[in-house]
Amino acid sequence: MNRVKDCVKVKGFVRFQLVDVKTGKALGEPSPWMKNQVVDLGFQDYICASIGAVAGSKQISHMAIGTGTVPGAAATSLDGETGARATVSNSVVSSKTLQMTCQFAGTDMASTCTIQNVGLFNTSAAGTLAAGITYATSQWASNQNVNATYQLRFS
Fold this sequence. Notes:
With 155 residues, the chain is mainly beta. The protein has one helix spanning 40-51; strands at 10-20, 34-35, 37-38, 62-66, 81-87, 89-94, 97-104, 113-121, 131-140, 144-154.
């Protein structure tokens, strides 16, 4: 007997670009797409529970950036979160890709900080982490905005 296995994989990717607040011009090239980690509750609450219309399922509505390390598989929050969460605009950019975009305003920062991680959440404060990543550090100043694009790709 020959069995064919069906499987669905989901991988998250993110990229950033710093933008000058006054001119709106990009400061350098956007980062390359960086692969992230979909955490355990990301699979459970955001993917499985949403597909099944299970009570308590979650939908991604906000992105956060922070100064900490990469979230582990069991993480529920973003290490070193700056407190500046941005509402994401969600769209389906191909039959198997959800894209979330947002801009973090430099005015949300009191002073320059070294950002190096990002995460997706279901609320503007607290909530449950769906996915996250760490990346090479960037200096974020109050005269700069951060444009962020996050994709969840299904295969």
